[in-house]
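Budget justification aside, the reviewers requested a transparent look at the raw inputs and outputs of the sequence design task funded under Objective 1. We therefore reproduce one unedited record. The lines immediately below are the structure tokens for a 466-residue chain.
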């Protein structure tokens, strides 16, 4: 059958169609679909059974977001204005974008603006008979290749974690079988609230991907902290990683830890170390680029999150262990964090005052050994557990001893003496210690170390499958 486009209609028909489409807030193509569907309905048979859906699978060889359908759910936060920019940036990458606005989002931006940018009416109401007739919430949930929630408010995250379905956004999120990416945005106190963190942990456990939030200034005057929505280009980068084609680690779940831990002494002081988190972040990014579903548990670092990686931020060793245990099971666990060996026995609830002539004594206790705890698990041990050994002398001897003591499969040993510049620097010199021997890699960038390691992991997993 030949195809007919709106452009080929005669002018009078086009004008009537344009007026009718504008009245219903639809594109002209969608209006034609509705008219045809209505006619078919009246004729008593579904002649449109095989009508092309609005969102098609991507053609082969396209860019990552090319021709992918993205359903953008916009929540009711100040950052909603950034989602208008996000629509454009996703389209620039070739994606087709459909929008849902929550009732609260409509206090910040209009469905008209989102619809005009998307080129298709924005959906707002679960009980709108016309929307249900046109598309329906189940089709909205299933036709997209990816659902992006930006901004994801505390309220939307709570609804998702609790399985609510009392408005269009929540119902679609519950009904979908597609990957979901959330970009949280809220006041730092709302973000730090125990309930929000509980909901976040639940969403991560449910396989929801998370980008941001970032640290920075809030819309409220004088407020700053963690809670700013990730920038549109960061969200697009995360989308591209999720929509990326098959890689050697597609279908594998990889857990990475990175950064230092901060162990409180009192409300203003802590024990820390010089780890920058660069190596762990590079590994997480390389694993994501190879197709893995990556969860990074990060201590406090001053760097943006790697793209396409879900990041859980912690402060202390005990919080890191808790986050790691919650994140299991995983196919591979890579422990690159520089976890403090000790914490203060009894951190003070108030700032410790200097007492003239009397040096302050701090009682220290050992922190849990995260690598050994996971490597020695009786059940749920990841099939490949990899640790880092940061040593300042007898690097290989100590790394071999660590491999045996910790019960892990591989150790990446590096010399972190100050003259090497490895701690906090951009390069690394690795000795890979396994049960079958030691392999010394040449000095290279931390990104290259990460890519080499991911290549090794992919080869090991492929070999184990054979
Ligand atoms: C001016 C203003 C700004 C708000 N900004 C945010 C925000 O950035 N993040 C958030 O989680 N909630 C924010 N809220 C509260 C949400 O709008 C409220 O929780 C609403 O119920 C969210 O609905 P939704 O999740 O269905 O979009 C804000 C409220 C107001 C009045």
């Amino acid at each position: 059958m030949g195809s007919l486009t709106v452009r080929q209609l005669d002018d009078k028909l086009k004008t009537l169609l344009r007026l009718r489409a504008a009245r219903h807030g639809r594109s002209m193509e969608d209006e034609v679909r509705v008219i045809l569907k209505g006619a078919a309905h009246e004729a008593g048979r579904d002649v449109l059974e095989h009508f092309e859906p609005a969102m098609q699978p991507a053609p082969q060889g396209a860019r990552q977001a090319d021709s992918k359908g993205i359903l953008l759910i916009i929540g009711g936060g100040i950052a909603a204005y950034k989602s208008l920019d996000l629509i454009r940036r996703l389209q620039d990458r070739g994606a087709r974008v459909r929008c849902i606005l929550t009732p609260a989002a409509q206090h910040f931006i209009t469905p008209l603006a989102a619809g005009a940018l998307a080129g298709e009416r924005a959906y707002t109401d679960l009980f709108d008979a016309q929307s249900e007739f046109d598309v329906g919430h189940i089709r909205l949930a299933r036709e997209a290749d990816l659902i992006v929630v930006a901004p994801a408010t505390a309220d939307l995250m709570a609804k998702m974690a609790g399985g609510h379905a009392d408005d269009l956004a929540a119902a679609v999120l519950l009904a979908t079988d597609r990957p979901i990416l959330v970009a949280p945005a809220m006041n730092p106190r709302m973000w730090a609230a125990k309930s929000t963190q509980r909901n976040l942990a639940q969403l991560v456990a449910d396989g929801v991907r998370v980008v941001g939030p970032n640290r920075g200034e809030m819309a409220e005057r004088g407020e700053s902290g963690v809670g700013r929505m990730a920038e549109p280009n960061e969200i697009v980068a995360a989308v591209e990683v999720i929509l990326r084609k098959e890689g050697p680690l597609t279908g594998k779940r990889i857990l990475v830890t990175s950064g230092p831990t901060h162990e409180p002494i009192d409300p203003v002081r802590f024990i820390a170390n010089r780890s920058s988190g660069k190596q762990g972040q590079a590994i997480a990014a390389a694993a994501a680029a190879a197709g893995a579903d990556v969860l990074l548990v990060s201590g406090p670092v001053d760097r943006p999150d790697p793209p396409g990686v879900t990041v859980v931020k912690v402060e202390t060793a005990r919080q890191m262990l808790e986050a790691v245990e919650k994140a299991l099971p995983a196919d591979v666990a890579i422990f690159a964090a520089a976890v403090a060996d000790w914490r203060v026995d009894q951190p003070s609830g108030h700032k410790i005052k200097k007492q003239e002539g009397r040096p302050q004594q701090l009682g220290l206790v050992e922190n849990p050994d995260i690598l050994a705890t996971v490597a020695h698990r009786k059940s749920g041990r990841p099939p490949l557990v990899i640790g880092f050994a940061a040593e300042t002398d007898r690097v290989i001897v100590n790394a071999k001893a660590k491999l045996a003591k910790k019960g892990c499969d591989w150790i990446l040993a590096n010399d972190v003496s100050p003259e090497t510049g490895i701690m906090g620097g951009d390069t690394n010199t690795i000795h890979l210690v396994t049960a079958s021997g030691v392999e010394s890699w040449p000095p290279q960038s931390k990104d290259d170390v990460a890519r080499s390691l991911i290549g090794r992991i992919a080869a090991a997993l492929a070999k184990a499958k054979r």
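Residues 263 and 271 are 5 Å apart (CA to CA). The chain has a mean pLDDT of 87. Computational costs for records of this kind are itemized in the attached budget.
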